[in-house]
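Appendix B, Record 12. Input sequence as logged:
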Amino acid sequence: MAKVEPGPGSARLLLVDGVSLLHPEDAVFDAMLEGWARQQRGGRRLEPDTIDDRA
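Logged structural output:
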């Protein structure tokens, strides 16, 4: 079975494998928001103010 790579903006691209997190829920949530913001900047070419307002 082929390995599936995470898509652009995936939280998996921001979290480091093998690292124990002190507050995993916060770290995953922050990574999700950053991944979402990257998708908005790259794919939709939104302005930073628009992204900040929506976040």
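The mean pLDDT is 84.
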